[in-house]
Specification:
single chain, alpha/beta, Isoleucyl-tRNA Synthetase, Domain 1, Rossmann fold, Isoleucyl-tRNA Synthetase, domain 2, 4 domains, 31 strands, elongated, RNA-binding
Length: 894
RNA sequence: GGGCGAUUGGCUCAGUGGUAGAGCGCCUCGUUCACACCGAGGAGGUCACUGGUUCGAACCCAGUAUCGCCCA
């Protein structure tokens, strides 16, 4: 892929005369480059997307919108740099890069921040108040007690969320600009913005129209703190302390059946006892009944393969609902529903009607309204008293499901919720799971093994995607329901808005054909009170950023996108859900490639996290070391590989800083030889063997780096460029500097050869480093070139090969070895490298004799040999180069 | 319990069949002449372990151990 004829950036003409070098600082420095070039790039719109480009010319990137209410940490800088390196590489290759940035301001973290910041809470039943002023504005950041928070309408609440996130977003943008992300900032979006809401609501309604979205009254995971349903993808299994309680049930003929449970408070919700069908201990009980202790409910004893014979007593009580296994049993064995846990996590206050014994109703009256914790203690006391508790409870650690943002174990509560099909549940006539697995195979994961995580997740789904949330700050589910004449809500016949009217808030907008005074009255309508899960919006980032629905011209040029960049932790959420939406809506993958970044680990190999107190403020880090240095560190870690980071010992960052400084200094040096005459990139001028050899080596480096970046291996590309560059500085520059200075008596063609080779090499080196070190390379570029290096073409090896001609690829290494041998003599003699040899003889492998002869005069100059430098053949089997020579006394200091 | 990844010099990591590599750190030396945010030279490893395939294994195969992550 090369730059097209229609591109605004002409391909460079390598032989053209370039203006004389100007404006090279005496002491080049990294300090201040971020501000200077950041401003220049903004001014020049260096990274603006040219929407006249065709789809083939475009390279489009779908980047994770960071949660603006959270804080950015080192890990963000790490992974966003990976994406930027790709973007810059593709831009230089001539692709028109579509690189928008989004902000994820939708969702729970923002809600919590807004509540504290403004002292408000959302009450969707309240009407909108125009020109609302919240009780606090900023305050001291302390949380305001729930009781003191002023209740406001959802629309007012959302407005406050938007006001606050707008401030956060400015800080985020500043960081990203400082880091040097080559984002087109005119393309940014917010996941709570009108565009995002329109996209999310339209996509949902289309899912609904196609039968891919549906509502169901079903048991589901429920967070009692936030009082919202939670999806499978948001689960986190954590260790949770508990106790095994041995509880006795009784058969009609007096036999005791002992089960073990960690949740005795669910005893009134028990609907059966269940053992494995092959478990001989309980075979005689299958089909019979037992009676529960305390509550006296008659329950069947049933067989099901999910019962684990070697766990506890091997027979379990099935309650509605203690865990997901209970749900499976309940569904597959068609058990009754006897729920006792309310949405606030307490036991139902009213005594359930399936408790019929007087003692049972009395016991329940004691625990109704209590938290599960208190109810458990009460039930255990009662069991102990009735003699149905066998022994004392035994402490245990068990795995419990938590909402990833919650701190209490999830309960399972039956509620009406909206779902989108994702292959997790069978649907007649379609194998959606297989379709989505095929999409995963179609997607190019980098690294490839990350595809397994996708496949494992899709293969292990056990339900459709629950998208409704009983929260406030989010995209509303755009539906109303009729209220029947007798005041019932008719959920089966939702009232759907026109697509053209989206986005809407059904709690403040009125459906077509109704008036506001019909809200909530018989014969009228009610709004669906829920919002969509954040992922239900962010799963549509390619559509939101790409102009779906509103700009079909743009959308056709950028979608499906080329790249999704993200962390490995959200493959099951963001990556998967985006594929689901795109597959359902467009019948296509949303992107061709997925670049998965690894974790940042602290020195103890633990994931960096705020709670562990090991997070470094990214902006401070950039300011301290320089953005190029930090970018070098990020680029030196491969995709998918975790990188360790010790803020106390930022070794890799310092290496990056050293490299960036070296680029400045070496460039200044290489450009200094031209004096006042124009620099020429003339391949025909390169005639000396060592000059040809260095360009030959660089041509190979270009090919390797290009292939590596094409394969999304930025690390290898950086490594080969870096290795070349150090050899270029340490050996080649030293070897040719005397000649390049144009000392008296030298052949002018030899001088021109060195200068041309240095210019050609520098031109290529700057381009190679530009994606990783955008500031240092741009700084150097400005000394002798027009325009931005970031709009220059990616280097190709052909000009270099032309200049190299028959250049010997081994020559630089051999000359370097000879030079090192001369240096070693001085080093071991403990004298300055500037000490001269009176004369010297190099003993070396005869095979390299001619090579050294070809660079002899450069070697004499660089090695400081005043008199003759002669060569001798080493004996058989002798490796390397040895030196015999007399050092002259050091010249006296002046 | 299943899956994925890792295990190479003090540290961080390259290296997919042909005599062990880099950078950092360390040791020694050096500095007006691009660069002390520097330069030169040097020391340092039986490639986690056990078998196997091969003329030859850090690399391929089987297994083991340890660590990390994901899923149950």
């Amino acid at each position: 892929m090369t730059s097209s004829a229609s591109s605004t950036r002409p391909a460079p003409a390598p032989t053209e005369a370039i203006r004389p070098v100007a404006q090279v600082p005496d002491k080049p420095s990294l300090e201040g480059l971020e501000e200077r070039w950041g401003a220049a790039w903004a001014q020049e719109q260096t990274y603006a997307f040219d929407r006249s480009a065709t789809r083939e010319q475009v390279y489009s990137i779908d980047t994770p919108p960071p949660t603006v209410s959270g804080s950015l940490h080192v890990g963000h800088v790490f992974s966003y740099t990976h994406t930027d390196v790709v973007a810059r590489f593709q831009r230089m290759r001539g692709r028109e890069v579509f690189y928008p940035m989004g902000w994820d301001d939708n969702g729970l973290p923002t809600e919590r921040r807004v509540q504290n910041y403004y002292g408000v809470r959302c009450d969707p039943s309240l009407p909108y108040v125009a020109d609302y002023t919240p009780p606090h504005d900023g305050g001291d950041g302390k949380s305001v007690k729930a009781g003191d928070q002023q209740p406001i309408s959802r629309r007012n609440f959302v407005e406050l969320c938007q006001r606050l996130t707008a401030e956060d977003e400015q800080q985020f943008e500043h960081l990203w600009r400082y880091l040097g992300l080559s984002v087109d900032w005119s393309q940014h979006y917010q996941t709570i913005g009108d565009r995002a809401q329109q996209v999310a609501q339209t996509a949902f309604l289309r899912n609904l129209a196609r039968g891919e979205a549906y509502q169901a009254e079903a048991p589901g995971l429920w967070d009692v703190t936030f009082q919202t349903a939670v999806a499978q993808a948001e689960l986190e299994a954590r260790d949770y302390p508990g106790h095994f309680h041995k509880i006795t049930f009784h058969t009609p003929d007096g036999e005791s059946v002992v089960i073990e449970t960690t949740r005795p408070e669910l005893l009134p919700a028990c609907v059966a006892l269940i053992a494995h069908p092959d478990d001989e201990r309980y075979a005689h009980l299958f089909g019979t009944t037992v009676t529960s202790p305390l509550f006296g409910v008659e329950l069947p004893v049933l067989a099901h393969p999910l019962a684990e014979p070697d766990k506890g007593a091997g027979i379990a009580m099935c309650c509605t609902f203690g865990d997901l296994t209970d749900v499976t049993w309940w569904r597959e064995l068609q058990l009754p529903t006897r729920s006792v846990i309310a949405r606030d996590g307490r036991l139902l206050r009213d005594t359930p009607d399936w408790l019929t014994t007087e003692a049972g109703r009395a016991t329940y009256a004691e625990i109704g309204g209590k938290t599960t914790f208190s109810a458990r203690a009460a039930v255990v006391d009662a069991l102990r008293e009735s003699g149905d508790l066998l022994g004392e409870p035994v402490a245990t650690q068990r795995k419990a499901n938590f909402y990833e943002k919650g701190d209490k174990p999830l309960e399972i509560v039956t509620s009406r919720q909206w779902y989108i099909r994702n292959g997790g549940r069978e649907v007649p006539g379609r194998d959606l799971r297989a379709e989505l697995l095929a999409r995963g195979d179609e997607l190019d994961f980098h690294p490839e093994f990350m595809a397994v995580r996708y496949a494992n997740w899709v293969g292990g789904l056990n339900g459709d995607w629950l998208i409704s949330r009983q929260r406030f700050f989010g995209v509303a589910i755009p539906l109303w329901y009729p209220v029947t004449a007798d005041g019932e809500i008719d959920h089966a016949h939702p009232i759907v808005p026109d697509e053209a009217s989206l986005p809407i808030d059904p709690s403040s907008h009125v459906p077509h054909g109704f008036t506001e005074d019909q809200r909530g009255v018989p014969g009228g309508f009610v709004a669906d009170p829920d919002i969509m899960d954040t992922w239900a919006t962010s799963s549509l980032t390619p559509q939101i950023a790409g102009g779906w629905l509103v700009d079909s011209d743009l959308f056709s040029r950028v979608f499906p996108m080329d790249l999704r960049a993200q962390g490995q932790d959200i493959i099951r959420t963001w990556l998967f859900s985006t594929i689901v939406r795109s597959h359902l809506e467009h019948g296509a993958l949303p992107w061709a490639h997925a670049a998965i970044s690894g974790w940042i680990l602290d020195p103890d190999r633990k994931k960096m996290s705020k709670s562990k107190g090991n997070v470094v403020t990214p902006l401070a880090m950039l300011e301290e070391h320089g953005s190029d240095a930090v970018r070098y560190w990020a680029t030196s870690a491969r995709l998918g590989t975790d990188a360790s980071f010790d803020p106390q010992r930022p070794t890799q960052i310092k290496i990056g800083r050293r490299l960036a400084i070296k680029v400045l200094n070496a460039s200044k040096f290489a450009l200094s030889f031209a004096g006042d005459s124009p620099v020429r990139l003339d391949p025909d001028a390169v005639t000396e063997p060592i000059d040809r050899a260095i360009l030959r080596g660089l041509a190979d480096v270009v090919d390797t780096a290009t292939a590596a970046l094409d394969a999304y291996d930025h690390t290898q590309a950086l490594e080969v460029a870096e290795t070349f560059f150090w050899t270029f500085c340490d050996d080649y520059l030293e070897l040719v500097k005397d000649r390049a200075y144009g000392r008296e008596g030298l052949d002018p063609a030899a001088v021109a050869s060195a200068r041309a080779a240095l210019s050609l090499a520098l031109d290529t080196i700057l381009r190679l480093f530009a994606p990783v070190l955008p500031y240092a390379t741009e700084e150097v570029w400005s000394w002798w070139r027009e325009g931005s290096v970031h709009r220059a073409a990616w280097p190709t090896s052909d000009v270099l090969r032309e200049a190299a001609g028959d250049g010997d690829p081994e020559l630089v290494a051999v000359a370097g070895t000879a030079l090192a041998a001369l240096r070693k003599v001085k080093s071991e003699a403990k004298v300055s490298q500037r000490t001269k040899f009176a004369s010297a003889e190099l003993t070396l492998d005869p095979a390299n004799h001619d090579r050294v002869l070809a660079v002899l005069s450069d070697l004499r100059a660089a090695g400081g040999v005043a008199g003759d430098l002669t060569l001798a053949a080493a004996g058989d089997g002798t490796d390397g180069v040895t030196v015999a020579g007399d050092l002259l006394p050091a010249e006296p200091k002046q």
